[in-house]
Amino acid sequence: MGSPDMVTAERLAELRRRMAAIPARGVVPAGRAPSDTELRAEPLPVPSALVELLPEGGLAKGSVVAYSGVTSLLAGLLAAVTGSGGHAVAVGLPRLGLLAAAEMGAHLGRLALIPDPGSDPVEVASVLLDGVDLVVLGLGGLSIPPSRTRVLAARARSKGATLVVTGGAWAGATLRIDARIAGYEGLGRGRGRLRAIHLDVSVSARSTPPRTGRLILCPHNDHVKWHVRQPDTALKATTDVAS
Question: Crossing angle, helix 146-159 and helix 121-128, to 10 degrees?
Fold first, then answer.
């Protein structure tokens, strides 16, 4: 086996070859292709229940988003992008399940997983920004120096790709999203079928006041649907519903 540096160099070279095989962002099979300005003006899609919480109604292209909390919403972001025709990669997130993303509508042919990016996941993400619409990067508890975060932010901006970072410290993110489990529906003292998961989501951006909301994931017939909690109609969530 080679040295760690050689292994990393070979891995990056392979990633660059794979990126070259991915169709360029915005390429369509027929008709007029949208201009770069049009492509960047339209944000990346997100689960419908999240739209009202985001300043632009989606993830701004060329931006860096800091995410914390449960992986359910990360899977939803990947599903929304790939399900609408985009390409996405999840890096350094070995516990992110393809099944969950598929149940939310992900197109698995447009979604790649790199559970073990090696000792420098940031460099791997930098390469991936060349060819995909969304890179979700798990930092594994690392604190990334501002000198590197600025470089990645500039690269994402120049490529028109969106970078979502989680599981570590990242300064200077354009947007911050936090999602926590608030309760469940349908579980009762070890019995019963899970009907819904409630998530409390908070969003903060540089130029707008913080926003909070309750999102609900509802499994149904091998699919997972997202809903916004309506105070006048939603059932009360609880972590232990008596049967």
Answer: 20
Please check whether residue 104 is in contact with residue 75, taking contact to mean a CB–CB distance below 8 angstroms. Answer: yes
Q: What is the DSSP string of 137-188?
A: EE-TT-B--HHHHHHHHHHHHHHT-EEEEESSB-TT-SEEEEEEEEEEES-B
pTM: 0.81
CA distances from 160 to 42, 56, 218 (A): 11, 15, 33
- What CATH number was assigned to the domain covering residues 43-177? 3.40.50.300
Going by C-beta distance under 8 Å and a sequence separation of 6 or more, which residues neighbour residue 157? 62, 63
- The full set of domain ranges for the chain reads 43-177, 179-228
Each residue's pLDDT, cut to its tens digit, for the chain (243 residues) gives 455 554 455 655 665 565 555 555 544 343 433 444 444 568 999 999 999 999 999 999 999 999 999 999 999 999 999 999 999 999 999 998 888 899 999 999 999 999 999 889 999 999 999 889 999 999 999 999 999 999 999 999 999 999 999 999 999 999 999 999 999 887 655 555 778 999 999 999 988 899 999 999 998 778 898 988 765 433 444 333 333
Type and span of the H or E element at 65? strand 64-69
